[in-house]
Amino acid sequence: LIPILSVLNMNGTFASYAPIAIAVVGGVVAGCAAWEGVANYGEIWRKKRRSSELLKVEGWQFFQLCGKYQEDGCHEKAFPRFAAAVEDMIAREVGEYFAVFGPSLEQSKVVAEKVFLDIVDDVRKKLGYNPLHELPTEDKP
Fold first, then answer.
1. Who contacts 118 (Cβ-Cβ below 8 Å, separation ≥6)?
2. Residue 104: its pLDDT value, please?
3. pLDDT at residue number 18
4. What is the DSSP track for 108-136?
5. What is the C-alpha to C-alpha distance for residues 105 and 111, in angstroms, rounded to an integer?
6. Burial, 52: exposed, middle or buried (Cβ in 10 Å; 0-12, 13-18, 19+)?
7. CA 61, CA 82: separation in Å to the nearest integer?
8. pTM summary value
9. What distances in angstroms separate CA 62 from CA 46, 68, 78, one per listed residue?
10. Cα→Cα distances 113→116, 130, 140, Å
11. d(CA 139, CA 8)
């Protein structure tokens, strides 16, 4: 779209609007490219596509009783193996997902624990609690 707008700008037909349109279109394209870099939609799509293709292959092998299901001879005998294979694929995909986000979850836990301890310390200071001294109880004056 930017080359077309540039030609229209040189032609003089839309000379007053073309530079603005070129800047807006260029900004939108740059923004979309930056967001794709952050959100990583392409990589997510490739992983989901791979998973769906593997599940499809497994389903067709089960349906046609070929590959590892050939020995079973019928769908009733092959089904437990098929169900286990599908569940294993799903578990591996979920495991890969958590392997990517696991470190950030651990880091979040550490940060949350630090924030919690800071809040507890602030409350203790405001209440005048000193952990080195015993708190008064109702039995003691």
1. none
2. 65
3. 77
4. HHHHHHHHHHHHHHHHHHHHT--TTSPPP
5. 10
6. exposed
7. 9
8. 0.48
9. 24, 8, 7
10. 5, 21, 34
11. 90
Tokens of 88: 């294993």
Q: Distance between CA atoms of 52 and 93, rounded to whole angstroms?
A: 11
43 to 8, 40, 48, 94: CA distances (angstroms): 37, 6, 9, 16
* DSSP structural state of residue 24: H
One digit per residue, the tens of pLDDT, for the chain of length 141 reads 778 777 777 767 666 777 888 888 889 999 988 888 887 888 888 888 988 999 999 999 999 999 999 999 899 999 999 999 999 888 888 776 666 666 666 777 777 788 878 888 888 888 777 666 555 555 555
CA distance 72 to 79: 9
Among 24, 86, 92, which Cα is nearest to 57's? Answer: 86
Tell me the residue length of the chain: 141
What are the tokens at 50?
Answer: 């791979």
Neighbour-count burial of 62, counting CB atoms closer than 10 A to its CB (0-12 exposed, 13-18 middle, 19+ buried): buried
What are the tokens at 101? 């986000």
